[in-house]
Protein backbone atom coordinates (compact mmCIF):
# COMPACT_ATOMS: atom_id res chain seq x y z
CA UNK A 1 0.00 0.00 0.00
CA UNK A 2 3.05 2.22 0.15
CA UNK A 3 2.86 2.16 -3.64
CA UNK A 4 -0.21 4.43 -3.60
CA UNK A 5 0.19 6.01 -0.17
CA UNK A 6 -3.07 4.56 1.17
CA UNK A 7 -4.02 5.98 4.56
CA UNK A 8 -6.94 5.72 6.98
CA UNK A 9 -10.24 6.89 5.54
CA UNK A 10 -9.20 6.63 1.89
CA UNK A 11 -10.90 4.29 -0.57
CA UNK A 12 -9.11 1.66 -2.63
CA UNK A 13 -10.46 -0.63 -5.33
CA UNK A 14 -8.61 -3.93 -5.60
CA UNK A 15 -9.31 -5.79 -8.82
CA UNK A 16 -8.50 -9.47 -8.61
CA UNK A 17 -9.05 -9.36 -4.86
CA UNK A 18 -9.50 -13.10 -4.51
CA UNK A 19 -6.02 -13.87 -5.83
CA UNK A 20 -2.97 -14.23 -3.65
CA UNK A 21 -1.58 -10.73 -4.21
CA UNK A 22 -5.01 -9.11 -4.35
CA UNK A 23 -6.01 -10.82 -1.11
CA UNK A 24 -2.97 -9.41 0.64
CA UNK A 25 -3.64 -5.95 -0.84
CA UNK A 26 -7.17 -5.98 0.61
CA UNK A 27 -5.95 -7.03 4.05
CA UNK A 28 -3.08 -4.51 4.10
CA UNK A 29 -5.34 -1.63 3.07
CA UNK A 30 -7.90 -2.60 5.71
CA UNK A 31 -5.16 -2.79 8.35
CA UNK A 32 -4.35 0.86 7.55
CA UNK A 33 -7.97 1.92 8.02
CA UNK A 34 -8.80 2.29 4.32
CA UNK A 35 -12.20 1.56 2.83
CA UNK A 36 -11.74 -1.28 0.33
CA UNK A 37 -13.88 -2.14 -2.67
CA UNK A 38 -12.85 -5.58 -3.86
CA UNK A 39 -13.73 -6.92 -7.29
CA UNK A 40 -13.36 -10.37 -8.72
CA UNK A 41 -14.54 -9.98 -12.31
CA UNK A 42 -16.06 -7.20 -14.31
CA UNK A 43 -15.77 -3.55 -15.03
CA UNK A 44 -14.71 -0.64 -12.87
CA UNK A 45 -16.60 2.01 -14.82
CA UNK A 46 -18.40 3.56 -11.85
CA UNK A 47 -15.47 4.45 -9.57
CA UNK A 48 -15.74 7.85 -7.84
CA UNK A 49 -13.32 10.63 -9.03
CA UNK A 50 -10.38 11.09 -6.68
CA UNK A 51 -10.23 7.39 -5.85
CA UNK A 52 -7.36 4.97 -6.19
CA UNK A 53 -7.25 1.62 -7.91
CA UNK A 54 -4.71 -1.20 -7.95
CA UNK A 55 -5.02 -4.14 -10.31
CA UNK A 56 -2.99 -7.27 -9.66
CA UNK A 57 -4.17 -8.77 -12.97
CA UNK A 58 -3.25 -5.84 -15.27
CA UNK A 59 -6.90 -4.92 -15.82
CA UNK A 60 -6.50 -1.17 -15.11
CA UNK A 61 -6.26 1.12 -18.10
CA UNK A 62 -4.22 3.78 -16.30
CA UNK A 63 -4.85 6.51 -18.92
CA UNK A 64 -8.60 5.83 -18.94
CA UNK A 65 -8.80 6.12 -15.16
CA UNK A 66 -6.56 9.22 -15.11
CA UNK A 67 -9.06 10.91 -17.42
CA UNK A 68 -11.65 10.30 -14.71
CA UNK A 69 -9.42 11.66 -11.92
CA UNK A 70 -8.66 8.22 -10.53
CA UNK A 71 -5.13 7.08 -9.69
CA UNK A 72 -4.74 3.61 -11.18
CA UNK A 73 -1.77 1.29 -11.01
CA UNK A 74 -1.10 -2.16 -12.43
CA UNK A 75 0.99 -4.02 -9.89
CA UNK A 76 3.49 -6.45 -11.38
CA UNK A 77 5.35 -8.83 -9.16
CA UNK A 78 8.69 -7.60 -10.54
CA UNK A 79 7.83 -3.96 -9.72
CA UNK A 80 6.24 -4.67 -6.35
CA UNK A 81 8.19 -2.95 -3.54
CA UNK A 82 7.12 -5.78 -1.21
CA UNK A 83 9.43 -8.14 -3.16
CA UNK A 84 12.51 -6.39 -1.81
CA UNK A 85 14.16 -7.84 1.34
CA UNK A 86 12.61 -5.09 3.53
CA UNK A 87 9.25 -5.59 1.82
CA UNK A 88 9.28 -9.35 2.37
CA UNK A 89 10.28 -8.74 6.00
CA UNK A 90 7.23 -6.47 6.35
CA UNK A 91 4.91 -9.09 4.80
CA UNK A 92 6.36 -11.76 7.13
CA UNK A 93 5.81 -9.46 10.13
CA UNK A 94 2.22 -8.82 9.09
CA UNK A 95 1.61 -12.57 8.69
CA UNK A 96 3.25 -13.30 12.06
CA UNK A 97 1.26 -10.69 13.99
CA UNK A 98 -2.02 -11.59 12.27
CA UNK A 99 -2.50 -8.30 10.39
CA UNK A 100 -2.87 -10.36 7.21
CA UNK A 101 -3.49 -14.07 6.72
CA UNK A 102 -2.69 -16.54 3.98
CA UNK A 103 -5.79 -18.20 2.56
CA UNK A 104 -4.62 -21.81 2.65
CA UNK A 105 -7.39 -24.06 1.34
CA UNK A 106 -5.53 -27.32 0.78
CA UNK A 107 -2.63 -29.09 2.42
CA UNK A 108 -1.29 -32.24 0.78
CA UNK A 109 1.73 -34.50 0.98
CA UNK A 110 4.02 -34.76 -2.01
CA UNK A 111 2.02 -37.68 -3.40
CA UNK A 112 -1.07 -35.41 -3.61
CA UNK A 113 0.53 -32.81 -5.89
CA UNK A 114 -1.15 -34.29 -8.98
CA UNK A 115 -4.60 -33.74 -7.45
CA UNK A 116 -3.80 -30.13 -6.55
CA UNK A 117 -2.42 -29.38 -10.01
CA UNK A 118 -5.53 -30.85 -11.62
CA UNK A 119 -7.76 -28.67 -9.38
CA UNK A 120 -5.67 -25.66 -10.40
CA UNK A 121 -6.00 -26.46 -14.11
CA UNK A 122 -9.78 -26.80 -13.79
CA UNK A 123 -10.15 -23.58 -11.81
CA UNK A 124 -11.30 -25.42 -8.72
CA UNK A 125 -8.60 -24.21 -6.34
CA UNK A 126 -9.71 -21.16 -4.36
CA UNK A 127 -6.89 -19.98 -2.14
CA UNK A 128 -3.41 -21.39 -1.70
CA UNK A 129 -2.19 -24.97 -1.48
CA UNK A 130 0.61 -26.11 0.81
CA UNK A 131 2.64 -29.15 -0.20
CA UNK A 132 4.34 -30.98 2.64
CA UNK A 133 7.74 -32.46 1.80
Overall description:
The chain has 133 residues and is an alpha/beta fold. The protein has 2 domains: 11-96, 3-Layer(aba) Sandwich (Rossmann fold); 104-133, no CATH class. The protein contains 4 helices and 6 strands; from the N terminus they run E-H-E-E-H-E-H-E-H-E. A 4-stranded parallel beta sheet has the order 2-1-3-4. Strand 1, helix 1 (20-31) and strand 2 (35-39) form a beta-alpha-beta unit. The radius of gyration is 16 Å and the shape is globular. The N and C termini lie far apart (33 Å). Residues 42-46 have low confidence and may be disordered.
List keywords for this structure.
133 residues, alpha/beta, Rossmann fold, 2 domains, four-stranded parallel beta sheet, two-stranded parallel ribbon, 4 helices, 22% strand, globular
Beta fraction = 15-25%
CATH class of the largest domain: Alpha Beta
User: Uncertain runs with pLDDT below 50, 5 residues or more?
Assistant: 42-46
Terminal-residue CA separation: 33 Å
Overall 3D shape: globular
Helix share, percent:
25-40%
**Can you tell me the CATH topology of the largest domain?**
Rossmann fold
CATH superfamily of the largest domain: NAD(P)-binding Rossmann-like Domain
Amino acid sequence: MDLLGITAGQSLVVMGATGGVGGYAVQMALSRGAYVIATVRGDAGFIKPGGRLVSTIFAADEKWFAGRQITAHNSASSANPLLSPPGLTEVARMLADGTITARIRSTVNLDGVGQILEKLRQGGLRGKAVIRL
